[in-house]
Specification:
It is a single chain. The protein is mainly β. About 10% of the residues lie in helices and about 35% in strands. The chain has 4 helices and 39 strands. Strands 32, 34, 37, 38 and 39 form a 5-stranded mixed sheet that branches. It has a 4-stranded mixed sheet with strand order 7-14-13-10, with no helix packed on it. One of its GO terms (biological process) is cell morphogenesis. InterPro entries: Cadherin (IPR039808), Cadherin-like_dom (IPR002126), Cadherin-like_sf (IPR015919), Cadherin_CS (IPR020894), Cadherin_Y-type_LIR (IPR000233), Catenin-bd_sf (IPR027397).
């Protein structure tokens, strides 16, 4: 309550209030100066209010005293419960942690005044989660309270923490939060095989690196703590098999490292070990983090193809061996326990000419055709060995290389090229005109040595001499001073070439020498029989080619003229109706039987009414041939004879078009017992038709009899 010393109680003064909440939260009685609160105050919203009050003259409005300031403080009461900063906390710790291991810290705040009483003093406690976890009452730190908590037994825990003010005393307000705690995995479990012995079967034909079986050791841990590495530690198949780890399934895959052989060994015993790749030293006391198991692998017998004693054979033979000579033997055996007999054959895809053959019983290879080293030096053939008791996949193939060696001199030497040279008419004696060389298809151990000489028949009478140079070459020289090409234009000089191998082989080769005119320097100008230099005129071949071109051009012109002449025969009827079949569409239905004014349709019935003098309308008439007149068919002519007659006439008509033509004839014939039923014939008669006979023809003509019969009866009546 405010009161001024100037207030005499006569109502001349008035109290006014200003400041925080004046007129809203706080009001003042202007007559008495009493200050009152209009609503409940909350310290957490505003703890202090500053007000200013003053007394003024009611009539003049002037202050009678200086303005006074009032500070109003709101005293706190415990009206707010503690609030956690999170509704739900999530935390994780490794399994097997020691007691007292920090998990997480929770925090709760109280909006009450911490300086006034215990309203804001918060104390933490655990409502759910014992005996696994504990919480410090003042700090809110959650710790483990139980030793060796195992994730494999329980992984998730839910802890409820309470925060209470007033220092935890009775009457205090409280709030709670939930903490979800997860135990993370550590490698505290070694791998363990579910069984001590595994058995697998593998055919002896199993390819290398192929899987034989899978084994798996179980590990209760997860992720990298459960990764396992498998190895073969011992056993009689230590070098025959290998094992790898499937990273997705953590299985051990046993594979074949070397080829299996049932006949050699049919059972292998292995010891396989599974070891963790990530071992935690803290838990080594729990035991060795590995386990072992025994694996028995039974090799199954498979019918295998015969095996040759060697992977490949190379044989050499003389090229002059007689036919059916044995040049070598191949050997193959059945590797199976049955030891079935083997038969041999030659793969004819590799010996298309059937040069070689083989004894199917003992594998002896012999020749069936003569050999020629100069034609083919090496023969690569394939020999097939198969069991006589033939089973699928019981064949085996072997590569065989046969070579023919030169032990026989069976080829005579010959010129290295064809020699054709010339001699000048003004040549001098002993003048070199050509040097000769030779080759031999045969080989020689010491190198070839050829000798050259003139044939006996030319040695004395020849106009030339031959000199052997002793280096596998020979030189031809002139024997006389001058030559006359008009007397002899060409000389043929026979030369004998011999080798020095055994038996000695020789051949006679011919050198062609032409006599030519030369200048003073010995350069050839021309020869009598045939100029060796380029002629100035055209050769015979060129003349023949020009003549052939002229003939082809003339033939082309004649064909073009014939085609132009043929094009002039264009049809007279040029319209969309012209389909080259002599059918003319009139699109005129007519007026029926009563219409006799359109055209005389009787001509379709009577072939004799056709005017043979009318020309064809589809091509231009030719004046070269006169139209032929054909004999008209009699009324009693059979339809087939009539058509055949017309067909023959069209085939023999020289004025007919070159394309196919369809000739249509509306001739019915006279062979019908009931005669014609067509109304086309009625136009040629004057009287009415009598259709009473239709009723006598049976049920098939009943409809026609009903249509025409009553009409006739009406007329009779």
């Amino acid at each position: 309550q405010l009161h001024s010393d100037q207030d005499k109680g006569d109502g001349s003064l008035k109290y006014i209030l200003s400041g925080d909440g004046a007129g809203d939260l706080f009001i003042i009685n202007e007559n008495t100066g009493d200050i009152q609160a209009t609503k409940r105050l909350d310290r957490e919203e505003k703890p202090v209010y500053i007000l200013r009050a003053q007394a003024i003259n009611r009539r003049t409005g002037r202050p009678v005293e200086p303005e006074s300031e009032f500070i109003i403080k709101i005293h706190d009461i415990n009206d707010n419960e503690p609030m956690f900063t999170k509704d739900v906390y999530n935390a994780s710790i490794p399994e097997m942690s020691d007691v007292g291991t920090f998990v997480v810290q929770v925090t709760a705040t109280d909006a009450d005044d911490p300086t006034y009483g215990n309203s804001a003093k918060v104390v933490y406690s655990i409502l759910q989660g014992q005996p696994y976890f504990s919480v410090e009452s003042e700090t809110g730190i959650i710790k483990t309270a139980l030793l060796n908590m195992d994730r494999e037994n329980r992984e998730q825990y839910q802890v409820v923490i309470q925060a209470k003010d007033m220092g935890g005393q009775m009457g205090g307000l409280s709030g709670t939060t939930t903490v979800n705690i997860t135990l993370t995995d550590v490698n505290d479990n070694p791998p363990r095989f579910p069984q001590s012995t595994y058995q697998f079967r593998a055919p002896e034909s199993t390819p290398l690196d192929s899987p034989v079986g899978r084994i798996k050791a179980n590990d209760a841990d997860v992720d990298e703590n459960a990764e396992i590495e498998y190895s073969i530690t011992e056993g009689d198949g230590y070098d025959m098999f290998g094992i790898t780890t499937d990273k997705d399934t953590q299985e051990g895959i046993i594979t074949v490292k070397k080829a299996l052989d049932f006949e050699n060994k049919n059972l292998y015993i292995l010891k396989v070990e599974a070891t963790n790749t990530h071992v935690d030293p803290r838990f080594l006391y729990l035991g060795p983090f590995k386990d072992s198991a025994t694996v028995r692998i039974q090799v199954e017998d498979v019918d295998e193809p015969p095996m040759f004693s060697r992977p490949a054979y190379i044989m050499e033979v003389k090229e002059d061996v007689p036919l059916n000579s044995i040049i070598g033997t191949v050997t193959a055996q059945d590797p199976d326990a049955a030891k079935n007999p083997v038969k041999y054959s030659v793969d004819r895809h590799t010996d298309m000419d059937r040069v070689f053959n083989i004894n199917s019983g003992n594998g002896s290879i012999f020749t069936s055709k003569p050999l020629d080293r100069e034609t083919l030096l090496w023969h690569n053939i394939t020999v097939i060995a198969a069991e006589i008791i033939h089973l699928p996949q019981s064949d085996s193939k072997l590569a065989l290389k046969l070579g023919t060696q030169v032990y026989v001199n069976d080829n005579a030497p010959e010129f290295a090229m064809f020699y054709e040279t010339f001699v000048c008419e003004n040549a001098k004696a002993e003048q070199l005109i050509q040097t000769l060389s030779a080759v031999d298809k045969d080989d020689s151990y010491n190198g070839h040595q050829f000798s050259f000489s003139l044939a006996p028949e030319a040695a004395s009478s020849s106009n030339f001499t031959l000199q052997d140079n002793r280096d596998n070459t020979a030189a031809i020289f002139t024997r006389k001073t001058r030559y006359n090409r008009h007397e002899t234009s060409t000389y043929f000089l026979p030369v004998v070439i011999s080798d020095n191998d055994y038996p000695i082989q020789s051949s006679t080769e011919t050198v062609t020498i032409r006599v030519c005119a030369c200048d003073h320097r010995g350069k050839m100008l021309s020869c009598n029989a045939e100029a060796l230099i380029h002629p100035t005129g055209l050769s015979t071949g060129a003349l023949i080619a020009i003549l052939l071109c002229i003939i082809i051009l003339l033939v082309t012109v004649v064909l073009f003229a014939a085609l132009r002449r043929q094009r002039k025969k264009e049809p007279l009827i040029i319209s969309k109706e012209d389909i080259r079949d002599n059918i003319v569409s009139y699109n005129d239905e007519g007026g029926g039987e009563e219409d006799t004014q359109a055209f005389d349709i009787g001509t379709l019935r009577n072939p004799e009414a056709i005017d043979d003098n009318k020309l064809r309308r589809d091509i231009v008439p030719e004046t070269l041939f006169m139209p032929r007149r054909t004999a008209t068919a009699r009324d009693n002519t059979d339809v087939r004879d009539f058509i055949n007659q017309r067909l023959k006439e069209n085939d023999t008509d020289p004025t007919a078009p070159p394309y196919d033509s369809l000739a249509t004839y509306a001739y019915e014939g006279n062979g019908s017992v009931a005669e014609s039923l067509s109304s086309l014939e009625s136009v040629t008669t004057d009287g009415d038709q009598d259709y009473d006979y239709l009723s006598d023809w049976g049920p098939r003509f009943k409809k026609l009899a009903d249509m025409y019969g009553p009409m006739d009866s009406d007329k009779d009546s």
